[in-house]
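Q: Hi! First time doing this. I have a protein sequence and I read that you can turn it into a structure. Is that right? Here it is:
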Amino acid sequence: MIIKRLKRIIQNEKFHPTIISFFINNNFLIRKSIRKAIVKYNNYLSGSLLDFGCGTKPYKKLILNVDSYTGVDFKIEGREESQKNVDFFYDGKTIPFKDQMFDSILSTEVLEHVFNIEEILIEFNRVLKMEGHALITTPFMWEEHEMPYDFARYTTPALEYLYQKHGFEVVQKHKTGNQIEVVFQFAINYFKNIIPKFALKQLLLVPFMVTFNTLGIFFSFILPSDKTAYFNNVFVIKKIKNIN
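A: Yes, that's right. Below is the predicted 3D structure, encoded as C-alpha cells:
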C-alpha cells in the first residue's frame, strides 16, 4: 500500500510539480512551465477532445471544458503498464477515427517522436472539425529522451509554417522557460547522466536538483529574460480549411 502510494505521488509530481519535485523531479523546471502553459490555454479546448500521444493522460484533470476525452497513442512493446489508460492505438499512418470527429485536440510532447510531422498534421486536420482548436506543446531545448524514438526539434517559425501549411491558423504561440532556466536544467541533466545507475542514485541527485532548481528560479526572477533558448513551443491553432 505504501509503495503504491509513493508511486502515485512520484507519477503526479512528474507532470504536476510542487515543492516536493525540488527533491525528486530532475525535470522540475521544464515540467512546471509546461503545466503552467496548459492551464493558461486549456480554455480553448471544448466538446469532444482527442488526446494524441496521451500516455497516462497526465493532464486530463486540467482540461475542464470538454464533454468527452479520448486518448490515442502508439503501441510500444514493453510499455503496457504505462499505456493502460490508452483508449485507441495509432498505427503510424491513420488516426482511427472518421473525418471531423473531434472539436479539440491536445498533444503534449509528442511531435518530436514523429519521424514525419507532416503526416500527423494531415491527420489532425482530417479528424478535427472546422473551427476546432488544437493545443500542442513541442520541446525545443530538451535532452534526448525516450530513445530511440526521439527524432526532431522545431523552432517557433518552423512550427508556425507547418501548422499554416496544413490548414491551421495560429491563435496563440508561447515559449516556455528562458535561457537561464535552460542552463540550470541542463546542469541537472549533466549530473543525472554521469552518475552511474544504482539504488541510491536518486538520493545523490537531491543536492544538485535543489541547488540548480533554486538558482534557476532565482536568477530568472532577477535578471532580464532571454528566450533565444527556451524549453518548449506551445501553440494554440484553429482549423480554418480542409486539406484532404
